[in-house]
Amino acid sequence: MFFVGMFNSKINVLSLVSYNFLPAKMGGQKGIASFNDSFSKQVNIICVTTKSNDPKAADYEVLNILSDSPLRYMNIFYFFTLRNIIKQKNITHLQIEHPYYGWLALLVKRFCKVKLILHSHNIEGLRFKSTGKWWWRILLGYEKIVHRKSDHLFFVTDEDRAYSIENFKVDPAKCLTTPYGIDWQHALPADEKSTAKKILNEKYNIAENELVLFFNGSFNHKPNLDALYFILDSLNPILAGTKDFKYKILICGKGIPADITDKKHPNIYIAGFVDDISVYFKGADIFLNPVSTGGGIKTKLVEALGYDLFVVSLKDGAIGIPAGITNSKLIVIEDDNDVQAFANAVITVSGKELHIPGAYFDYFYWGNITQKAADFISS
Predict the structure, then answer these.
(1) Bridge partner list, 276
(2) Taking a C-beta distance cutoff of 8 angstroms, is the pair 354, 329 a contact?
(3) Rg (CA), the chain
(4) CATH code of the domain containing 131
(5) 8 A C-beta contact, residue 233 and residue 199
(6) Residue 2: inside a domain, yes or no?
(7) What is the average pLDDT across 187-209?
(8) pLDDT level of residue 297 (50, 70, 90 thresholds)
(9) pLDDT per residue over 215-226, tens digit each?
């Protein structure tokens, strides 16, 4: 159900996005682009971003002011640029993505008298800890300062919100969970999914009695690449050796290494980057999510459940999905590399007939998410 709210013309948000996200292709980019697009229907938004972004890909004003050089994160002169825009556009709120531009945002907050919104996509220090970066404690300390001095904090998961409150000592009244969302409010029609399944069956020569298992991601991101090797080297051999279990696995995404693409894998099609990923989500039966590091909500998981797929996921990979709204479509396996348990879950759900409930769409529909956000900062 869409939250009925009026457009708040008194709230003018300057969205500062310090990297390429337009047009949005990957999950993190989609999270910012879709949030801002939906948020712009609730409040006025002007986005300041890097020169590499395409303003035509947004329905709100985009100013390509920031350099694409890594040195942009240390450019003090951007303070004066933002100050001028704030005066010209009567900006009331500055919104930053991640804490990296926190130092600049805090300067703007102090001297330009605007409210600061931190749109936190992960606890970044912990994310880099999970990937083995030695400097994660330094980032976590900096992140704590930015969290504490922000006026409003948007978190993509309840878990991140709880962490900030407990460990950063942030006032709970400043915190709101605004998860990664989807653009549709209802389950897709059965014929639309059936059509997509036929397309995949014909394209990859998949038999009618074979299940379509699916995984996608950006494979220059180590957690996704580790998950892909888990599927190829550990999961697939077990499934292939299971009597009467008929299946094919489709792998989509950029950055798949040559040692994978150059080798034939039984029951697996390496599709690589595809123009329309929605066909794969609609036509698949089970989404595989053996991702155990990286932090934050997994955008592909939100989409997979929204497309009414069964999902088998490791516990860390399922963070941010409330169990009570999935109607058992999400099966969670402990993060202990128990490939047999993961395989058993895939086999077990293959014969079930369940559908994602309306409560899932109430929670993850972008219109509802951004209406809550607008109400939150206006009150």
Answers:
(1) none
(2) yes
(3) 22
(4) 3.40.50.2000
(5) no
(6) no
(7) 96
(8) confident
(9) 999 898 888 999
What is the distance between the alpha carbons of residues 207 and 211, in angstroms, rounded to a whole number? Answer: 9
Q: Which domain holds residue 160?
A: 8-182+363-378
119-137 average pLDDT score: 93
The verdict on 26 and 45 lying in the same domain is yes
Segment (H or E) for 166: helix 158-167
Residues 166 and 41 in one domain: yes
Three-state DSSP class for 230? helix
CA distances (Å), origin 331, targets 44, 218, 306, 312: 40, 23, 15, 5
Question: Which pTM does this prediction carry?
Answer: 0.92
CB atoms within 10 A of CB 267: 15
**C-alpha to C-alpha distance for 309 and 213, rounded to whole angstroms:** 10
Do 29 and 78 belong to one domain? yes
**In this structure, which amino acid lies at residue 333?**
I
* Residues 6 or more apart in contact with residue 137 via CB below 8 angstroms: 125
Structure tokens at 31: 């999270």
- pLDDT given at position 335: 77
Residue type, 307: Y
Distance CA 102, CA 94 (A): 11
- The strand pairing partners of 311, in sequence order, are 287, 330
Residue 1 lies in a domain: no
Query: 157 and 13 share a domain?
Result: yes
Question: What's the rounded Cα separation, in Å, for the pair 168 and 71?
Answer: 28
Percent over 90 (pLDDT), the chain? 86
Closest CA to 16 of 74, 87, 99, 110: 99
